[in-house]
Structure formats: structure tokens, C-alpha cells
Write a structure and sequence with these properties.
With 341 residues, this protein is mainly α. The protein is built from 19 helices and three strands. A three-stranded antiparallel sheet has the order 1-2-3. Helix 2 crosses helix 4, helix 5 packs across helix 7 and helix 15 packs parallel to helix 18.
């Protein structure tokens, strides 16, 4: 923390009333908070009032240490204040109903949410498409990478093709910032096919094995059988994790491909079994499954799935295969099937 320079006479980023007098760079020297002395003290004691938290999170993102959800709820109220007598003083963060009266405030609201859903997207669509795009582009140019993920989500769900040029320009920044998952959603919905998927696969090709394992999930947004072809050439020969199967399940998977993968043996047989398990709805399943609701295509009779499970057991009687095959067999009637069987 340091005193602000003489030229920094703008309003405090938190209260937006007093003049800036302190620069707090504890959790990111490259993107410090510019606040008044009183707000600096509350910030460092994790005791911001909700409106102050909201204003700072709108500029710097809520994932910063001093603003993190370990210390504040989604409406900005402190949950672990390191001070006596904490009070919100009725300085509450705006609700969505209040924020939607102004485009900048609505974007503020969106980038402070832990996750975005239909109410936020509907509210943004009430503004002309080019207006939110200009606001999103301005925020991206000014803000750090912590805001970029939310801005890409806004582009994907509230802007669509009007944001295509801006989305293209964000790919390398998203890749470098570990935000390829968010970029892929925007690319899938804003760019024409197959451009978005081609750009995503090209970006993945720049990553080492460890980074690729973490970033590949973004391909799920394209819902494309071309992703299954990519899996066939990139699935690791050992230590096949369940996320490969989840990606396959969300990528237009059909029973013919399952059959071919089980016949091929490891690693693709493990991907196939994990994909089948992913089609069974269950508590704790990743939210993206509820949102995209994938279903296995090409099934005329559920008995065909059971036959493939028997084949998998016979070909590879390992504990992992037995466990997954038994799970799917025990929940055969719940497997999401496109035909509705």
C-alpha cells in the first residue's frame, strides 16, 4: 500500500465519493486499487460495505484475493470481516432490477456475479446489440484478465455474431490468461462454423500436455462430432481421466462411435465408458450438463448399450472398467437417449 500521487485526484474506486489518496497493490501490483484512506482500511480488513465491494469488483473482478468469495457473498456483504462492529450501513449493491436501468451498471452487475444466467442475458438484450458490444470492448481494453472471462460470457449469450470481430481478437489473450474455456463459448456462438472450432484447436496445439489437459474442455461448446475426431488423436495413452469422456458426451456422440471405441481398446474404450456414465443424470454433475442436456444419438434399443458393456467387460476386465460398466448397466433406464427410449 502506498500514498497516491498528486495527479491521482479522481474519485475513490470503492465509495466513489472521496478523492483517491491510497494505492493498494497487495494482491496485484499490476492492477492496484485506487481508493480513499477509509476504503483502503476496510479493503485490507475484508470489511468493505456491499456497494464498495461491488464498485471494486466491477473494475478489478471478484476473484482478486481482497475481494474473493472467501470473504464476501455474491451481494458484497463481508462474511469474515477482520474488524469489530462491521455494518453495511445500508450501502447495498444494486439489484438486477436497479442495474438494468443503465447499460454500464448492468455490465458492472454481470462482471460481479459468480455465474451468469438467463436473467442477466435477458436484461442485456434490452439494449441495442452494438451498445453492449462497445461497453464490453471498452471494459476488456481497460480491465485485467479477471474481467475477460465474464465479458466473453456476455458476448456468447447476449451479443452473438455482432461480436465476432471482437471475439476473434481476444483468442490469444484468453489463451495466455487461462480463459480458453470462456473464449470457446464465445467463439461457438459468435463465429461462423467451423471457424471457431478451427481456431480453438489451433490454439490447443500450442499448449504442452499439462496445459492441454486443463484447456481442452472448452471444445464442448462446439457440440461437434469433429471434436470426437480430435479426441481420437489426442487422448493420452495412459492415465485417461474422466473429463475426456465428459467432453465426448457433450460433442454429438453416437452409439456407433461408442462401439468403435470399445472395440479399439484403451485409451478410447475408457473414454467411451466414461462418456456413457456421463449420460446418466446425477446429483453433483457439472452444471454444463444441465444446461446443454446432451443425449446419446443412434440408439434404437437400450439393450444395444448393455451388449457393448458386456463387450467392454470381456475385453478389459479391470476394476475401473467393471466399476463403470456396472454403474451404467445399473442405471440403463436413466441414460439420456436422443430417441427418448
Amino acid at each position: 500500500m502506498r500514498a497516491a500521487g498528486m495527479n491521482e485526484d479522481a474519485q475513490c474506486e470503492a465509495c466513489r465519493n472521496a478523492a483517491i489518496s491510497v494505492i493498494v497493490d497487495d494482491d496485484d501490483p499490476a492492477d492496484p486499487y485506487r481508493v480513499c484512506e477509509a476504503c483502503a482500511a476496510r479493503l485490507r480488513h475484508r470489511a468493505l460495505r456491499p456497494l464498495e465491494w461491488f464498485n471494486l469488483a466491477a473494475v478489478h473482478g471478484w476473484t482478486r484475493y481482497l475481494l474473493h468469495d472467501d470473504f464476501y457473498d455474491q451481494d458484497g456483504e463481508a462474511t469474515q470481516p477482520d474488524t469489530d462492529g462491521y455494518s453495511t450501513d445500508r450501502l447495498l449493491a444494486p439489484t438486477i432490477s436497479e442495474a438494468r436501468a443503465s447499460l454500464p451498471r448492468m455490465v458492472d452487475f454481470c462482471v460481479t456475479r459468480w455465474w451468469l444466467d438467463a436473467p442477466e442475458f435477458v436484461a442485456l438484450r434490452t439494449f441495442a446489440p452494438t451498445d453492449p458490444l462497445g461497453e464490453v470492448a471498452r471494459r476488456a481494453a481497460r480491465g485485467g484478465d479477471r474481467l475477460l472471462g465474464a465479458l466473453l460470457t456476455i458476448a456468447a449469450n447476449a451479443l452473438g455474431p455482432v461480436a465476432a470481430e471482437w471475439v476473434r481478437a481476444q483468442r490469444d489473450r484468453a489463451l495466455g490468461g487461462g480463459l480458453l474455456f470462456d473464449w470457446c463459448e464465445a467463439a461457438a456462438r459468435c463465429l461462423p462454423a467451423p471457424e471457431g472450432l478451427d481456431l480453438a484447436i489451433e490454439a490447443l496445439g500450442r499448449l504442452d500436455t499439462r496445459a492441454l489437459a486443463q484447456a481442452k474442455g472448452g471444445l464442448l461448446w462446439f457440440r461437434s462430432a469433429c471434436v470426437l475426431d480430435w479426441i481420437e488423436t489426442h487422448a493420452p495413452g495412459s492415465n485417461v481421466t474422466e473429463d475426456w469422456g465428459r467432453l465426448a458426451a457433450l460433442s454429438d456422440l453416437d452409439l456407433a462411435r461408442i462401439r468403435a471405441w470399445i472395440a479399439a481398446g484403451r485409451p478410447l474404450s475408457l473414454v467411451a465408458l466414461d462418456a456413457l456414465a456421463a449420460f446418466v443424470p446425477r446429483a453433483g454433475q457439472a452444471p454444463v450438463f444441465r444446461r446443454l442436456d446432451p443425449a446419446l444419438r443412434g440408439v434404437e434399443d437400450r439393450g444395444d448399450i448393455e451388449d457393448l458393456l458386456h463387450l467392454a467387460r470381456a475385453n478389459d476386465p479391470s476394476p475401473r472398467v467393471m466399476r463403470i460398466a456396472d454403474y451404467v448397466s445399473g442405471h440403463l433406464g436413466q441414460v439420456r437417449i436422443e430417441s427418448g427410449l
